[in-house]
Amino acid sequence: MSDVELGAMQTQFAEIVWENEPVSSGELVKICEKELCWKKPTTYTVLRKLCEKGIFQNVDGMVTSVMSRAEFYSMKGEQFVQDNFAGSLPAFIAAFASRKKLSATEVDEIQKMIDAFRKE
User: Fold this and answer.
1) Residues in contact with 6: Cβ distance below 8 Å, sequence separation at least 6, in sequence order
2) Considering the domain boundaries, does residue 45 fall inside one?
3) Helices 89-99 and 69-85: crossing angle, nearest 10°?
4) With contact defined as beta carbons under 8 Å apart, do 27 and 20 qualify?
5) DSSP per residue over 19-55, as a string?
C-alpha cells in the first residue's frame, strides 16, 4: 500500500473506527454525527475512501480495520523516512538528534532496540 496519506478529517475518522471497532456502519454514523458533526453521506463517503485505500473494510454493515493503528503509523513512518531521507534511518536519526538532545533514557531505549535487532 503506497498511498497512506490521510487528511486531517480522514485521520480523525480513522481514529474513531480504531477506537470503536468492530462497529456497525449505523453506529459509526451516530458517532461521527456526535463527534465530527457529520451527516450520514459524509460518513459513508469517507468510509468508502478509506476502504478503497485498504485501511478498513465494511462487510455486511460491520466496519473493521484491515490495517491496525500501529501498522498504519509504522507505514507512515517508513514512508516519511523514504521520502525525506532517501530511506536512510541513520540519516533521519541524525537529523532528529541534531535538533533535540536525546535523554539518557531515550538513548538507552534506542540501544535496546538496536541490540534486539542484532539478535534477530
Assistant:
1) 14, 50, 53
2) yes
3) 90
4) yes
5) HH-SEEHHHHHHHHHHHH---HHHHHHHHHHHHHTTS
| pLDDT tens digit at each of 120 positions of the chain | 456 789 999 999 999 999 999 999 999 999 999 999 999 999 999 999 999 999 999 999 999 999 999 999 999 999 999 999 999 999 998 898 888 888 999 999 999 999 998 987
Residues, the chain: 120
The rounded distance, in Å, linking the Cα atoms of 23 and 31 is 10
Residue 104: what residue type? A
How many whole angstroms separate alpha carbon 96 and alpha carbon 83? 15
Residues 56 and 92 in one domain: no
* Residue span of the structural domain in which 106 resides: 88-120
Instruction: Write the CB contacts of 51 (distance below 8 Å, at least 6 apart in sequence).
Output: 57, 58
Q: What is the pTM of this model?
A: 0.80
Strand, coil or helix: what is 5?
Answer: coil
